[in-house]
Structure formats: structure tokens, C-alpha cells
Amino acid sequence: MRKLILDCDPGHDDAFAIMLAAQNLDLLGVTTVGGNGYLPNVTRNALVVLEKIGRTDIPVYPGHAGPSTKPLIIAANVHGESGMDGPVVTPPKRQPETKHAVDFIVETVMSTDHVTLCATGPLTNIASALNKEPRIAERVDALYIMGGGAYAGNWTPAAEFNIYVDPEAAYKVFHSGMPIYMVGVNLTRQCPVTPTFIENMRKLGNIAGVFGAELCDFFANGGDAHLHDACAVAWIIQPNLIKDAFLHVDIELDGTLTRGMTVTDLRFLQTSNPEADIDLTSTKKWNDSKEGSPFRGKEPNTHVAMRLDYPGFCELLLKTLRNYN
Ligand code: RIB
Ligand code: CA
Q1: Edge-to-edge, what's the strand order for the sheet holding 142-146?
Q2: What's the CA-to-centroid distance between 304 and ligand 2, angstroms?
Q3: Tell me: the pLDDT tens digits for 150-176?
Q4: What separation in Å is there between the alpha carbon of 286 and the centre of ligand 1?
Q5: Mean per-residue pLDDT over the chain, rounded
Q6: Ligand 1 probe mutation, 73, 156, 229, most atoms within 8 A of CB
Q7: 20 to 30 Å CA-CA from 315: which of 107, 150, 241, 297?
Q8: Nearest Cα to 120, choosing from 43, 4, 8?
Q9: How far is the centre of ligand 1, averaged over its atoms, from the C-alpha of 217 (Å)?
Q10: Does the Cβ of 229 fall within 6 Å of ligand 1?
């Protein structure tokens, strides 16, 4: 099983990311970051989810409360004041670890081979870990993120929430040289929480299935019913669930209308799936035009998720929830 550190801001869809990772990967630890909710809340929520599925052996390390450059904005309009409104839950029996998330990430990556990172919240902790120890960029197998979008946002027309909360952190990450797999909202819009989906979970009748259904009962009414974060972890578990395109992505920091945009160069779309979402196909490559030409792109740096096998995703999630006794 792949070794994983999951950095998240639970968050209803983060909860599904945790449940998928805990059963299907070697989840070394969960680190939390301010995003959907304030840090104490998202940390408590991570502990609650792990307790629900009987995995209190997996440690939780609190990280940064928010970005260093701007005050934190939270998504209470989507996830509620607690960060995971809906299910009635009891306070977790255990405390989070006292070690800081960034120290856990750095120490683990520097001492353990073949660690994969997955970030499903703002990239504040990941950027901070890179500042502390730049060599993690070459040590990790990959960084999977739920964030950004190949051609649109969700929090603004241009920017997706996780990137929008801390664009400077995202810039640091996308310029670090880490192998990046980006699951943007162009992909996650293919992963809706439908009434059928919810009832199939509820019908499992076990704690995990009912919990998943209760999470979605609330989340689906919040107006953003897509299991964004779960798609990123599902890609790690089952790579054939997602078709990607290897493209150049950079982060807009200054645009009045576009701050936090993941500017994705689609001009030389080289996708493993010719039926990818957009019909931009080109036989041109990023370096076909000579140096200095406006038509010359920059070298691709990101595996951009383009097409989801939604039935396959649902099968994986239901199988995982069913397997929790
Ligand atoms: O834009 C969707 C992302 O923002 C998801 O990670 C969700 O949990 C929120 O953090
Ligand atoms: Ca999240």
C-alpha cells in the first residue's frame, strides 16, 4: 500500500477523503489546516471521522490556522459553522498530537521513502514544509491536490476555494518541482452527490455508510454537492479512475478578477484521453515554436485531471464504506 500523508480541512468532502485513505492506503497521519473551518474545528472533525471508522491509531497533527499573507476566509456557507454540520457527533475521545503538522510532514518525508502527499485544503502547510525543508520536493513520490481548475473556479469565476484562500502558498508549491497531480473543479464537477448516491450509502446500514449519507444530506443542500476531495484520494488508490493531461500550470497572485486562478496552458493539450472534457486537441507541442515566440509554451509541470470514471468512483467509495464494520 502507498504511504500517504493527508493534509486536509474537514470539511464534508475531506471526511470522505479520510475514509477512503484510511482503508485503501497506508495513512501515516492526517494533518489539518484552516480552510473550510477554523483550525480547532477542522482538527476536531478529523478526529471525529477517524473515531467513526475505528481508526484512532492514525494520528492527527494540527497545522497552520491560516495563510500568512491574508486573514483566513472559511466556507461556513457550505460546511456550516462547525466545518462539518449535519451529522450529530460526540466530541472525540482523544486529543490531536502536540507536534506541528509541518514538523510531522518534514520529519516523515525526510526519514521515509516513497511517501505520497495529498492536500485537500489550502496549501499553507505544504508550502510551510517546503520553506522548512526544500528537499522534500525531491523526496516525495508525488503531491496530489484537490484544488484549482483547468478553466474555471468555484469561489470566484477564476479561482477555486483552496487556492483562493492562500495563493502565495499555492505559488510556492507549483514552483517547487514536486510532481503535482491536480484535481480541479473541472474534474470534480463530474462527481455529483446525487440522491441515489446518498441512498446507496444509507442502505449499507453500517456506521460508515449512515455517516456518509448524513454528511451528504447536509452537504448536498449547501449548494456545492460534489465530492471534490474524495476524487484526489481515489486517484491515488485507483489511477485508472482519472484521465489526465500533462500541462503547464501557474498561479495568478495579482489579478483583480483572477487572484488565485490556476492558469492552465491548454494550447498544447496532450491528454491520455482524446475525449477529455474539452475538445481542444492539438498536435502542436509546447516547444514547437521557437524561443521568444508568443506561441511557445512553458514546460508542463502538472498532471491535470480531466476525465473521471464516475461509476468506478462510486463503486470504490461504496465498497470502502461497506468494508468498515
Ligand atoms: O473547492 C472545493 C474545496 O474547498 C474542497 O477541498 C472543499 O473541502 C473545500 O476545502
Ligand atoms: Ca477540503
Answers
A1: 60-62, 26-32, 3-8, 115-119, 142-146, 180-183, 302-308, 242-247
A2: 18
A3: 999 999 999 999 999 999 999 999 999
A4: 31
A5: 94
A6: 229
A7: 150
A8: 8
A9: 17
A10: yes
Let me know: does 162 contact 147? Beta carbons within 8 Å.
yes
All 3 cell numbers of residue 314? 462510486
Number of the ligand 1 atom closest to the C-alpha atom of 36: 10
Which atom of ligand 1 is closest in space to residue 10's alpha carbon? 8
Give the containing element (helix H, strand E) for 50. Answer: helix 39-52
Nine-digit cell string for 211 = 455517516
145 touches ligand 1 (CB under 6 Å): no
pLDDT score, position 265: 93
Report d(CA 3, CA 117) in Å as an integer: 9
**Per-residue pLDDT, 47:** 98
**pLDDT per residue over 99-111, tens digit each?**
999 999 999 999 9
Q: What is the pLDDT of residues 119-152, one digit of tens each?
A: 999 999 999 999 999 999 999 999 999 999 999 9
Report whether 34 contacts 42 (CB < 8 A): yes
Ligand 1 atom closest to Cα of 146?
6
Domain boundaries, the chain: 3-288+295-322
Q: Which residues of 145-184 are buried (b: 16+ CB within 10 A; e: fewer)?
A: bbbbbbbbbbbbebbbbbbbbbbbbbbbbbebebebbbbb
Check 12, 100, 228, 248 and give the catalytic one: 228
